[in-house]
Amino acid sequence: MRLYTKGGDKGKTSVIGGRVDKDDLRVEAYGTIDEVNSFVGQARSHLEAKKFDDIQKDLEKIQHELFDLGGELATLDKDRETVFTNDTIEYLEKRIDEYTQEAPPLQRFVLPGGTKGSSSLHIARTVTRRGERLVVQLSKLDESTSALALKYLNRLSDYFFAAARVVNIRDGGKDVEYIRSKNVFSPKSDN
Fold first, then answer.
1. Per the database record, which ranges form the Cobalamin adenosyltransferase-like domain (predicted)?
2. Quick one: which of 156, 167, 170, 176 has its CA closest to 43?
3. What is the SS3 assignment for 136?
4. Does 19-76+83-170 carry CATH code 3.30.450.20?
5. Residue-level pLDDT at 7
């Protein structure tokens, strides 16, 4: 099998159901999701298997979901079905809550960074936000774009933030607070 087809030499690419320009918003959206997936793979390569077994399992699951989302976005068929369910979203929410409990309470904005794994997760978070913005734009043109896929991307970026903080903590580090930030997060009360 050859990796090159020469089919894209004139600025067009194949999607499921036809061909589009390589700068088509749909291609931008699924290309950005592919970029997120690459940073997730990079983060996984920086995380010790034993110390981060739970996060490793999450990230592998997420990589499969990102491939699913890319396929969904690369389909022109207006009757396409989404692979995302409320269970997919609830799983992410559960994990976000668990990781938030493990990390110290937030009071200020934090600078992205820390360990290599944490830094990769912060990059995945910001690229996910870009992907989310592109999918929002695409949904304005293609009303069949899944609302659950949008919700998934929104939760996914939050997941990456929570996981990045936990990676730093488990590796003996801490968040670096943005020094010009006032307290913007108030501790939750038990009421």
1. 3-167
2. 167
3. helix
4. no
5. 66
The CB-based long-range contact list for 127-136 (8 Å cut-off, 24+ gap) reads 127/32, 127/35, 127/36, 127/39, 128/36, 128/153, 128/156, 128/157, 128/160, 129/157, 130/32, 131/29, 131/32, 131/33, 131/35, 131/36, 132/157, 134/25, 134/28, 134/29, 134/32, 135/29, 135/73
Question: Which pTM does this prediction carry?
Answer: 0.89
What's the chain's average pLDDT?
88
pLDDT for 70-122, tens place per residue? 999 887 777 777 788 999 999 999 999 999 999 999 888 898 999 999 999 99
Q: Are 52 and 120 in contact (CB under 8 A)?
A: no
- DSSP assignments along 12-64, one per residue: EEEEBTEEEETT-HHHHHHHHHHHHHHHHHHHHHTS-TTTTHHHHHHHHHHHH
| Residue 95 identity (one-letter amino acid) | R
